[in-house]
């Protein structure tokens, strides 16, 4: 069994591993995604050693990066538009421990020209880990 197979062995059904081979996503991953029946998505990761702080909780920087990649993705999901982050606000509500499965998603709440406002949530099971909002500028189509 390959190391990729071992890493993916206990991933919840319906999630597929994102195929990021370079850049930030490849460095902090592996990351996963599944589509939802309403046409949306959920992104996720299992907290690994490389994503923790000294207390063996998911590092706040990892949660911020995950929020950015997840909240902004609502813009490109389904319409293949590139975007950049203009503003990102995240409120940390609870921790996520080593080995826990973290999920998140976002929802567009406003559009003003090429600027999208998004609300998002990150959770573990029923426990909210973080909430936030962001403003993202849409660029050219991919």
Automatic annotation (TrEMBL):
Superkingdom, natural source: Bacteria
Residue ranges constituting the Thioesterase domain according to the UniProt record: 57-129
Coiled-coil intervals: none
Pfam families found in the cross-reference section: 4HBT
InterPro entries: HotDog_dom_sf (IPR029069), Thioestr_dom (IPR006683)
Gene3D superfamilies, sorted: Hotdog Thioesterase
MF terms (GO), sorted A to Z: thiolester hydrolase activity
Transmembrane segments: none
Protein name as it appears in the record: PaaI family thioesterase
Highest classification ranks of the organism: Bacteria, Pseudomonadati, Pseudomonadota, Alphaproteobacteria, Acetobacterales
């Amino acid at each position: 069994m390959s190391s990729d197979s071992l890493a993916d062995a206990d991933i919840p059904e319906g999630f597929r591993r994102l195929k990021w081979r370079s850049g930030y996503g490849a460095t902090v991953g592996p990351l996963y995604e599944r589509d939802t029946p309403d046409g949306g998505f959920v992104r996720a990761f299992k907290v690994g050693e490389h994503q923790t702080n000294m207390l063996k909780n998911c590092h706040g920087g990892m949660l911020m990066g995950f929020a950015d990649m997840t909240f902004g993705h609502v813009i490109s999901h389904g319409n293949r538009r590139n975007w950049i982050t203009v503003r990102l606000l995240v409120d940390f509500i609870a921790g996520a421990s080593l080995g826990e499965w973290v999920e998140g998603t976002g929802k567009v709440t406003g559009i003003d020209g090429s600027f999208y406002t998004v609300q998002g949530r990150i959770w573990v099971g029923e426990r909210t880990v973080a909430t936030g909002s962001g403003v993202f500028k849409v660029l050219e189509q991919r």
